[in-house]
Amino acid sequence: MEVKELIIQAIKAKENAYVPYSNFKVGSAILTEDGTMYTGCNIENASLGATNCAERTAIFKAVSEGHKVIKAIVIVGNVNSHTFPCGICRQVINEFAAEDIKIIVAKNESEYLVKTMEEILPGAFSKEDLGK
Predict the structure, then answer these.
(1) Which position among 55, 65, 109, 128 bears the catalytic label?
(2) Contact 43, 51 (CB under 8 A)
(3) Tally of CB atoms within 10 A around 16
(4) How far is residue 72's CA from residue 119's CA, in Å, rounded to a whole number?
(5) Is 93 helix (H, G, I), strand (E, B) or coil?
(6) Cβ(129)–Cβ(94) under 8 Å?
(7) Which of 28, 34, 74, 129 could bridge to 54 as Cys pair (CB 3.0-4.6 Å)?
(8) What's this model's pTM, rounded to 2 decimal places?
């Protein structure tokens, strides 16, 4: 699957966001190791701490279906600037990232950045740090 198709699906997912508090919609699409795609949107909650980001929504959907390796992830938020994953999402992405994962931060189908895990989370905490 090509990058533009993942971006299109993330833009579609963004429309399902539940954001009555921030009014800031985010969509995400991931591509698993076997080529399956999952999407997610951010889902807010009045307690704020129970809010879930779009990236984690997509990843958790994939993991709950048995997919534990992500080849690519797209994040689409503000159309005027690139919306990067929050720190928690970066750590969750790292947990399931293929060694050569592509992290695509997009404004739209033609304006996007492609980053590596090391670029967005240098020195990440991993399973290896736990001796596992």
Answers:
(1) 55
(2) yes
(3) 15
(4) 14
(5) helix
(6) no
(7) 28
(8) 0.94
Could you report the per-residue pLDDT of 63-73, keeping only the tens digit for each?
999 999 999 99
Of residues 74, 16, 72, 5, the one with CA closest to residue 41 = 16
Both tokens of residue 48? 């704020």
Beta bridge partners of 104: 74, 114
Read off the DSSP letter of residue 105.
E
Q: Which two tokens stand for residue 92?
A: 């969750």
- In the chain, where the domains are located: 3-130
Query: What is d(CA 36, CA 67) in angstroms, rounded to the nearest whole number?
Result: 9
Assign a CATH topology to domain 3-130.
Answer: Cytidine Deaminase; domain 2 (3.40.140)
Q: Which residue has the tokens 């971006």?
A: 7
Does the annotation mark 33 as catalytic?
A: no
pLDDT band at 93 (very low <50, low <70, confident <90, very high): very high
